[in-house]
Design goal:
The protein is elongated and about 120 Å long. Helix 2 (about 55-70) packs across helix 3 (about 95-110). It has 5 helices and 6 strands, in the order ααββαβααβββ. The chain is α/β, with parallel strands linked by helices. Strands 1, 2, 3, 4, 5 and 6 form a 6-stranded mixed beta sheet that branches. It has a domain at about 55-185: ABC-type transport auxiliary lipoprotein component (Rossmann fold). Its main location: membrane. This is Penicillin-binding protein activator LpoB.
Amino acid sequence: MKRIVFVALSVMFLAGCPSLPLQQPEPPTPVIPVPPTEPTPPPEKVPELPKVREIDWEGTVQPLIEQMVKANGLGNGKLLLVDTVKNNTNGVLQTMQATDVLRQTVSSKGIFELVPQNQVQSARQSLGLSEEDSLGLRSKAIGLARYLNADYVLYSIVSGNSDKRDIVMQLMIVQTGEILWSGHGDVK
């Protein structure tokens, strides 16, 4: 008897459920063309790009390197690390270009053997130093030179403002940190 009541209630319950009609896919939304609007007039004045002043790095570093190679106590054939030129100005400088010119100028004198650039980059990565570290310190340069077993390090800083910049270069003995030669000049 219980089965019959259960079956009857189930039938009544299922009969009360609305059946869902089969859904037809909706037709695609029609594309309505929009007429073009009038173009907006261009701004009255196009902002100018900042002027990049070309720097004669070769003319800037050549006289300083001439002074440096005449310094007393330099050992011919010693290993030299040319550290990346630091930018302490209020503007943007192409420090990598300056460093490359500095390396070429020192190399052309034949006094030092330079640490190869690929070794410098690899050592910078190993020590966690950025290639364009503008907050470079002498201690970082000496530490990098010690890591590379260099005898000397050439440390260079450009300071001033966009109107007048000057460069200071220091040749330091890696083992002692002693400044063997120092020179400065105007950035041309």
